[in-house]
Design a protein that fits this description.
This protein is mainly beta. Helix content is 4%, strand content 44%.
């Protein structure tokens, strides 16, 4: 999960279409599917435009709004996330570039690119065989655990 520190509930409600495209997002939140269901990931964070570092199996870029000046990067089973990125408030393109590096081991490179204008759409730049993204991509998701029947 990548989310602005101001977001209280950063989990997204996933549909089959979100799974097919590899991500679910809201304005200041993005949840990426990883290449491997189990294992560990080495995460590298760059405050720059996406630049390929070798061969990636999956690359997804999404619009992202930073409001608090701090972004949290957290894995699904982490109880105390230790990865924070201090960024000036504004609009960004967040690109997640993933590759498998071994049995139950992967690398995830996250690129935070500051933009002068908001990005209109997400993009799947490199799709592995597990992805079958819809056209157009889903640009919104609900909040995980939110009871939609109450609205």
């Amino acid at each position: 999960m990548v989310y602005d520190q101001s977001v209280r509930l950063p989990g997204c409600a996933w549909t089959d279409a979100h799974s097919a495209q590899g991500f679910a997002r809201r304005e200041s939140v993005v949840n990426f599917n990883t290449l491997l269901e189990f294992g560990d990931a080495d995460v590298a964070i760059s405050v720059s435009a996406y630049r390929p570092r070798g061969t990636y199996d999956r690359v997804i870029a999404v619009p992202f709004l930073v409001t608090s000046g701090k972004v949290v990067v957290e894995g699904p089973e982490e109880t105390k996330p230790e990865r924070n990125v201090v960024l000036p408030p504004g609009t960004y393109r967040v690109t997640a570039a993933q590759r498998v590096t071994g049995d139950e081991q992967q690398a995830i490179d996250l690129f935070f690119e500051r933009l002068s204008e908001p990005l209109e759409r997400s993009a799947v730049l490199v799709a592995d065989c597990a992805l079958n993204p819809p056209t157009p991509l889903l640009e919104t998701a609900g909040v995980a655990g939110e009871d939609l029947s109450i609205k």
